[in-house]
Specification:
Layout: H1 20-32, H2 39-42, H3 103-121, H4 136-139, H5 143-157, H6 165-168, H7 172-185, H8 195-203, H9 215-225, H10 229-240, E1 245-246, E2 259-262, E3 279-283, H11 296-299, E4 308-311, E5 318-319, E6 326-327, E7 330-331, H12 334-351, E8 357-362, H13 364-380, E9 386-390, H14 399-403, H15 405-414, H16 422-435, E10 447-452, E11 475-479, H17 485-488, H18 491-503
Parallel strand pairs: 1-7, 3-4, 3-8, 8-9, 9-10, 10-11
Antiparallel strand pairs: 2-4, 5-6
Helix pairs in contact: 3-5, 3-7, 5-8, 9-15, 10-16, 12-13
């Protein structure tokens, strides 16, 4: 399956928004991006002998002008059409004159712009309904809407914010601060765009140089097509050893602050069972297209019930902004990376009242979650209340990974929010090098192994058990889906199993484990 470097994702269903208006909006967005739409089928003639004249829609992307057909009020009546009159003052005029404003007025202008764009993307009537300090995930942002917001801001400002910016910055105020800082580096030089220029910029958003797919991504695409996935990963491991590196947690250039994805309501009745108050911390995986968004679906069922954070993996971020953005150093050892993560986990634990922590990871992130649990116990004296391993294939049990390499590569390309950056492909290679042949460390934390019930691809009858494996003591549960779809389509099932398992274990102590259910 060959995918284009740039794709437009359109959602026909959104939370609390799945009716005919949502479908019509999505079809209009598809039309505006060049996809043919049979409007006669979508808007059939009304009852009676009068056949309405369907107005031509523009063939270029448009914003802030409505072309909807109002329904007829009585049978046979000609439907009313929206007048295509002068457009209201376009948002694309935002920006010129910022340099002449004072600092407070500039900051207010940037914040107001970010809130207006957020309200537009989420279909709110007014930006007044969006408090700037409310988490963006709680407002309703998902993968597609986050990219849409990024595209709008980039089109207005001329910046090259990465798609991950909306995920990594917790609130609209934080996102506005990021925009403010990048515009300040440009000395507030924002050029007004014509309607056509704005539409073009919106359709083909600027991409940060560090997030732009390069030569390595092209080679990765070729390797996947030729079923040489594992060979490419091995090459990345060798190349990654030549990158700039940090040797201690103190040298790590990233704060690694865990990002809150869900919050426990303050008015929720107290739970005497410590794991009911545990902080759930999702350890992002090694994939070059990974990040906090890996846990958006899994964290959603926990909203109001438990605090759920996403913990970044060092080596995948950038420092600086705009043209000065550079990849951060990668860790020289896995221990350096784990110590940097451990410090971030302990900081958020202290901020949350020293509640117990439960580490969660999927695929390579599962191996890292268990390694972090071992490091926390061995070096920092903290035993997690539990570790949840979602479909891991540790060393010694990677025959399915080798057999399904092409499918794994296809899954990475299919999951791109934007082209995988070369720097992130190298970071992936660094961690693959760390995890190859590394036996799981010791940990007193109870472990839940969550396995996919369906194989990712074909598997020979005499090939043995293809399912995820864990040698150390653990509890096991199987959930619907394969290695990818279990997290994409069946996250609520996984969340239910995690909650049930937590309800049955004690805080920070060993349990009798090993039974399947």
């Amino acid at each position: 399956m060959n995918l284009p470097d740039q794709a437009v994702g359109l959602a026909t269903l959104r939370r609390n928004d799945g009716g005919l208006h949502r479908l019509t909006t999505s079809l209009a967005e598809a039309w505006a991006n060049g996809l043919p739409v049979d409007w006669d089928t979508h808007h059939p003639t009304t009852a009676g002998p009068v056949v309405p004249d369907i107005p031509d829609l523009p063939t270029y992307p448009f914003q802030h002008r409505h072309y909807w057909i109002a329904p007829a009020t009585t049978p046979g009546e000609r439907p009313a059409y929206t007048e295509v009159g002068p457009a209201p003052e376009a948002e694309q005029t935002w920006g010129p004159g910022l340099a002449e404003l004072g600092e407070d007025d500039r900051r207010r202008a940037v914040t107001d712009m970010v809130l207006r764009q957020s309200a537009t993307v989420l279909r709110y009537g007014s930006s007044d309904d969006l408090p700037g300090d409310r988490p963006l995930r709680e407002m309703g942002f998902d993968s597609l809407t986050a990219i849409e917001l990024r595209n709008r801001i980039n089109a207005l400002t001329g910046l090259s914010l990465p798609a991950s910016a909306v995920f990594e910055l917790a609130t609209a105020n934080a996102l506005a601060e990021r925009v403010y800082a990048e515009l300040a580096e440009l000395n507030w030089e924002v050029t007004a765009r014509s309607t056509a220029e704005y539409a073009t910029a919106l359709d083909s958003p600027a991409v940060s140089p560090t997030d732009r797919g390069g030569t390595l991504r092209t080679l990765f695409r070729q390797a996947v097509d030729e079923d040489r996935y594992t060979r490419f990963i091995a090459v990345m491991s060798e190349l990654a050893a030549l990158q700039n590196q940090f040797t201690t947690a103190e040298e790590c250039a990233e704060p690694l602050d865990p990002l809150r994805l869900s919050a426990r309501h303050d008015d929720r009745p107290g739970d005497e069972h410590a794991t009911g108050r545990a902080l759930l911390i999702g350890c992002t995986g090694t994939a070059p297209n990974g990040g906090a968004h890996e846990f958006l679906r899994l964290s959603k069922p926990f909203r109001g019930e438990r605090d759920f954070f996403a913990l970044p993996l060092p080596g995948y971020a950038v420092t600086g902004t705009g043209a000065g953005a550079r990849p951060v150093p990668v860790p020289a050892t896995l221990e350096a990376a784990l110590d940097a993560q451990a410090q971030a986990v302990l900081r958020v634990q202290a901020m949350e009242g020293n509640e117990p922590i439960v580490l969660i990871g999927h695929s390579g992130g599962a191996l890292l979650a268990h390694a972090l649990a071992s490091r926390l116990e061995e070096v920092h004296g903290v035993v997690p209340a539990g570790v949840v391993l979602i479909d891991p294939y540790p060393p010694g049990h990677q025959a399915p990974i080798e057999a399904w390499g092409k499918l794994l590569g296809e899954g990475l390309f299919a999951g791109e929010l934007e082209p995988m950056a070369d720097s992130k492909l190298l970071a992936m290679g660094r961690y693959v090098d760390f995890l190859t042949d590394r036996a799981p460390g010791r940990s007193s934390a109870p472990v839940l192994l969550v396995r996919a019930a369906e194989p990712l691809g074909e598997w020979p009858a005499d090939g043995g058990d293809w399912r995820a494996h864990w040698d150390n003591p653990h509890s096991t549960v199987d959930v619907p889906g394969d290695h990818f779809t279990m997290m994409r389509d069946h996250a609520p099932v996984i969340a239910r199993e995690i909650a049930s398992w937590l309800d049955g274990i004690g805080p920070c102590r060993n349990t009798a484990q090993g039974g399947d259910r």
